[in-house]
Known about the structure:
About 30% of the residues lie in helices and about 20% in strands. By secondary structure, the protein is of the alpha/beta class. The chain folds into two domains: about 160 residues, Rossmann fold, CATH 3.40.50; about 100 residues. The strands form four sheets. An eight-stranded mixed sheet has the order 3-4-2-5-1-6-7-8, sandwiched between helices. Helix 9 links the parallel strand 14 and strand 15. It is globular and about 60 Å long. The relative contact order is 0.16.
Amino acid sequence: MMxxxxxxxxxxxxxxxxxxxxxxxxGFFKTKKLPCCVxxxxxxxxxxxxxxxxxxxxxxxxLKCGISVAVLSRGYGRNSTGxxxxxxxxxxxxxxxxxxxxxxxxxKKLPCVPVVVDxxxxxxxxxxxxxxxxxxIILDDGFQHRAxxxxxxxxxxxxxxxxxxxxxxxAGNLRESWGQIARSDMIFLTKTNLFEQNSRLAAKLNSFNxxxxxxxxxxxxxxKTGFNRDxxxxxxxxxxxxxxxxxGSPKGFEQSLSETGAVIADHLVFRDHHKFTKTDIEKIHTxxxxxxSELIIxxxxxxxxxxPLVPDILTIYALPVMVVIPEEILTTIISQIPNNLSS
Length: 343
């Protein structure tokens, strides 16, 4: 019923998005090019595809190959505007409020890589070139940001396909129509180890004649506390746990947690990018007591916002994850990076 009510708004949204894409296609809206290679990681839906761990995995491989790299993001949910240097590759210079939760997470996981946020990606990219001169800029959540040219356009699609992915906002999850997949250079089908393959989704993706790559979401070996009290992942086996998350796709987090052998007593789900409050902490504590949970487990992204609010009597652990991209695909991406750009 709600989808029926929202459908007219989706039609209006489709009208504006369609014309915007048309104007870029015919060259009426201009695309600017940076003097370095830009690799975009993006999606069609609202959250839930694993962009942040994919960015981290790709950056780590570039570093392994000796390629200088920086990360450029919009910084969704931040309380600042303009160009903000989150990390200079040596120190984290901002908090999550001024940078956004995902850029802070990337800065923590990539301590030697500059991370910059800017709603104007060309301006932010030029600031990166001026200050850090990398050979490659990874454009986080860049599929819809057509004002900036990208040399490699990677589209992420969650393998947990559901009905909402067939409708445009606000009636569904789609930012753009499925037809825009044609703009991508390759498609990453994510979290394929967590969900059964959907034949309908596979057929839809294969119809675009783009390389479709299966990536997996794997767990790290330790639960993180942010202090020197990390626990081995095996600690979770047969433990009653309270899951807490604010993600675009909480089912993936729940599935990963289940695979550790933990018994999920309950799962407190908040809206994606939720800004936690002391009231939320009280709610989490009450839920832990009422469900007789032994541990509280959250995501690394949410842990960044929860940690400053958590009292000493309450310990919350983060479940670290990493995306695994097939080695041959990483080799293909490296081979497509132009050699005549910044070093």
